[in-house]
Design goal:
The chain is 28% helix and 22% strand. The protein folds into 3 domains: 77 residues, OB fold (Dihydrolipoamide Acetyltransferase, E2P) (Beta Barrel); 151 residues, Rossmann fold (3-Layer(aba) Sandwich), CATH 3.40.50.300; 55 residues, Ribonucleotide Reductase Protein R1, domain 1 (Orthogonal Bundle). The protein is of the alpha/beta class. The protein is built from 8 helices and 13 strands.
């Protein structure tokens, strides 16, 4: 029979054997963990206590694990998370890289604004990338300049071309040493950009559907990929639907940073739709771009209609 003293010694021995790593992929009841010091990867199973407590590690979790002597490991502890991004579900994210395009496919500003609302709600930093600029003609470039002027006041904006190499050095600087997730409609070239800055990843890329004019989904699960220059990126399934119905309509205005640049409305609880004395509506076309207010109004009515 083990005494209390030997049990304590056993726990101390296990504690001394613990190593730290980051969860890079989830497989049913097992996870892949990358050791934070060596970069070696282990397929780790979970101790029964996690199932009893209904706890499951997710991609991006920092964990403590022990090796089992058979080339795999056991998760001993999930360290506290600094944040969790719900869609896709990733922990400890530093920033969201929103990739969009003006051609093949042509992503409307309304879709960009929908993404931005969800990222603003998460409280994460966001970088907007306009990709495939090699496909743009003079008229397209004029439209791009207008969009850059709108968004660059509140977000970091980068113009890229995986084919031509535009902006790739700047993208590496943005990603280096951070945990990032790339968001964007399928077909905008997320995987192509990652392959261009880190060829060893060899991610699958899909050809644009000539009929549907949208990309085919080429990623089917969330995985944390390590860059050779330092840092990680979550290569995630393409987004088809961006549901904002869970947002409180009264809070939606908080996710449009330009609204905070105008003076106070006549009513403190103004939602900037039909109220008199609304400073936000008065600023439309001046401080607030018409396209951004139009997105806000559409989103507000959509959310109210879904309740």
């Amino acid at each position: 029979m083990r005494t209390a003293e030997t049990q304590i010694e056993g726990k101390e021995e296990i504690a001394n054997l613990r190593k730290r790593g980051i969860v890079t992929r989830f497989h049913s009841n097992m996870v892949t963990v990358e050791d934070e010091k060596t970069g070696e990867r282990f397929l780790c199973r979970l101790r029964g206590k996690f199932r009893l407590q209904n706890l499951r590690p997710i991609v991006g979790d920092r964990v403590e694990y022990t090796e089992d002597g058979f080339g795999s490991g056991i998760i001993e502890n999930i360290l506290p998370r600094k944040n969790v991004l719900e869609k896709p579900k990733i922990a400890n994210v530093d920033q969201v890289i929103l990739v969009t395009t003006l051609k093949d496919p042509d992503i409307p500003p309304r879709m960009i604004d929908r993404f931005l609302v969800l990222v603003e709600k998460s409280g994460l930093d966001v970088v907007i990338i306009f990709n495939k600029i090699d496909l743009l003609n003079a008229e397209d470039m004029k439209r791009l300049d207008e969009l850059v002027e709108i968004y660059s006041k509140y977000y970091e904006v980068l113009l890229t071309s995986a084919k031509r190499g535009d902006g790739l050095k700047e993208l590496i600087d943005i990603l280096k040493g951070k945990v990032s997730t790339m968001a964007g409609i399928s077909g905008v070239g997320k995987s192509s950009l990652l392959n261009a800055i880190s060829p060893g990843m060899r991610l699958k890329t899909g050809e644009l559907s000539k009929k549907l004019r949208r990309g085919r989904h080429t990623t089917t699960f969330t995985e944390l990929l390590r860059f050779s220059f330092g840092g990680y990126v979550a290569d995630t399934p393409g987004f088809a639907n961006l549901d904002i119905s869970s947002i409180d309509p009264r809070e939606l205005k908080e996710y449009f940073p330009e609204f905070k640049e105008v003076g106070a409305c006549e009513f403190s609880d103004c939602v900037h739709i039909d109220e008199p004395g609304c400073a936000v509506k008065e600023a439309v076309g001046k401080i607030i771009p018409e396209s951004r207010y139009s997105s806000y109004r559409e989103f507000f009515l959509e959310i109210v209609g879904s309740k």
